[in-house]
């Protein structure tokens, strides 16, 4: 009789339990952290419109949030590679707490620069949250990685409820300081996320891995990686481009803040709810097909927005935009997993996120000025340009997967 089998089975069962525990904790943290982003998107342009010296700068706080994401993706990856993902996660949650507290003070003092500083720290938090999906995939068996990745993203469904409802039920609690209590709540939610993340059990980085692997330039030249970056950029760029402008556009159209909050709530739910199935769809049909569907849905969302400017059209646009983002971004993230070896994962994943959010910054800065100068219809029409670029990339690049393991 072979007495090794029970030990191996026990070890395997322990690994599976640890994997499930990590995925659950990361999903809960994703829900709480997603509320941070939702609060910024729901309030950023409105508070900016109240505090900015000129209306053209109304969406600058949201753009600064995106800048914080872009600038901190590489440092977050480096911190995870050197000190472990959990340490990076806790640093990010701390930044989220600081963001809420600074925003609270900014509203009390009517300080536009201070509010921009708050959204920057919110972006730092969001940059760290981006790696939750990859952390879940890292601790799963290869055949379960797409599902683990999408399961964590599914936690964002609850962010779609937590964030907008937090704004709706707290924005008038501290008159005359609109949203002051909201930002206190934002800080509390980020602190709770840190408590959840403290229990995540991920392997410590191996010192030898920090200097191993191929040069990043070599990895970045892979057609599959280039395609993943392009699709990730376009999916997130357009989601941010349209979502940043939508609350202010609804305000310009005479619609209420409550309507904007509900629109964002359904948008965020639509962003994450498909994650319960996206991983299975990727496993069955491939990441490329899922990305193509996502880009098509984003195109439909812009077309619906051009049909009218009432509440129903805004909500339909935001909902379709959210579903399209889910398919496009998670599909692109699954492509990235095909492009690296285990010792290269932190660097490659953070490089992907840096390229995605560095490019997205441009769209975020443009959206406010375009909306103020040319209107909501122009913002929607311009969204078809990057969609065409992504379509050409899907057609033109080879779909042959690149080996990631030696």
Automatic annotation (TrEMBL):
It comes from the Bacteria. Signal peptide: none annotated. The chain crosses the membrane at residues 56-76, 88-106, 112-136, 148-167, 179-204, 225-250, 262-278, 285-306, 312-334, 354-374, 380-399. One of its GO terms (molecular function) is transmembrane transporter activity. Gene3D superfamilies: MFS general substrate transporter like domains. Keywords: Membrane, Transmembrane, Transmembrane helix. Residues 224-406 form the Major facilitator superfamily (MFS) profile domain. InterPro entries: MFS (IPR011701), MFS_dom (IPR020846), MFS_trans_sf (IPR036259). The keyword Ion transport does not apply. It holds the Pfam family MFS_1. PANTHER family: MAJOR FACILITATOR SUPERFAMILY PROTEIN, MFS PERMEASE. This is MFS transporter. It comes from Bradyrhizobium icense.
